[in-house]
Amino acid sequence: MKLVNNIHVPLFLYNTKYIRPLLKKELRVILVSLFISFLITGAKFAAYFLTHSVAILSDALESIINVVAGGFASYSIYLASQPKDENHPYGHGKVEFFSIGFEGAMIFIAGILILFKAVQYFIYPRELFRMESGLWVLGITTLGNLFLGLYLVRSGKRLSSLTISGNGQHIMTDVYSSLVLMAALITIHFTGWTLIDPIVSLVMGVLILNNGYKLMRRSISGLMDETDMKVVDKVITILSANRRENWIDIHNMRIQQYGNNYHIDCHITMPYYLELNDAHDEMKRVEVLVNEGFTNSDVEFFIHMDPCIPSCCHYCLKSACPVRSNAFTGEITWTRDNVLPNRKHG
């Protein structure tokens, strides 16, 4: 169940009515990115044919990746929008990690090609032509990429989309490298030092390789369910701010991410004498609170309830406990150190 405007909505209806329109917004954003990236890539190749600059060619090769990655991202967002089924009980959101991994691999390959072309130009230098025209074209494409990158980064945060955020960060990296490239070409134009051209290309190739590695690293950690400590801290903050006396402790918390949705397992220690309905209501409160704290995301909880034992008494907040066997000595603050391990705090 999902709480929407104080009404409990079945999860499958929520996914259809609320999550799918959100994913349609993601798809529209990424299609805009794909179209603009296609135009910018064409303009950069035009600048290369005007100038014969290997540094501009490096920038154009990276822009090809924007187009290819945008196409793959469009498909991944479409696939992520499909509802859960028997074969995919957690949904299709993991495909977003494949998307950023694919983009990272393509960027890495582009970096290798750029390094190769730079070394080739050191061995067989070429004369540069029409530098002013190339600079004008590069300036316009850099400005276009700047607006596109900012749009994607903001949209990724607003929609909690890994794919859009990753695409936006890549394009912003492209903007920074283009600015460095423009500074280098202006220097060449006024000094005639053409050796700067392949040197800048080498530097750009190394930076692009590093960017590709980071995206692939992020993809692998997501596919292998590496714990995102920022998400853990957010869940702990929400539960600590709304702590109830029946929640004696929370431990063995594990968080998996599927696109912009989360699956959380945890154990909650509660008074052993609670009736089943009361215990269920307490667990439901946990799920509702965390879902309210994760806007634009759906958080699915699997909670295992542990009965309290005498060693829990010294930190149990229940003031009117009829079976307390040890005096209360103080509240234990929930942190990563006691929420993540599979053991009661006592």
UniProtKB/TrEMBL annotation:
Q: Tell me what this protein is called.
A: Cation diffusion facilitator family transporter
**Compartments where located:** Membrane
- Record's Gene Ontology CC terms? plasma membrane
Tell me the Pfam families matching this sequence: Cation_efflux, ZT_dimer
Q: Does the keyword Transmembrane apply?
A: yes
Give start and end of each Cation efflux protein transmembrane domain. Answer: 30-224
The membrane topology term of the UniProt record is: Multi-pass membrane protein
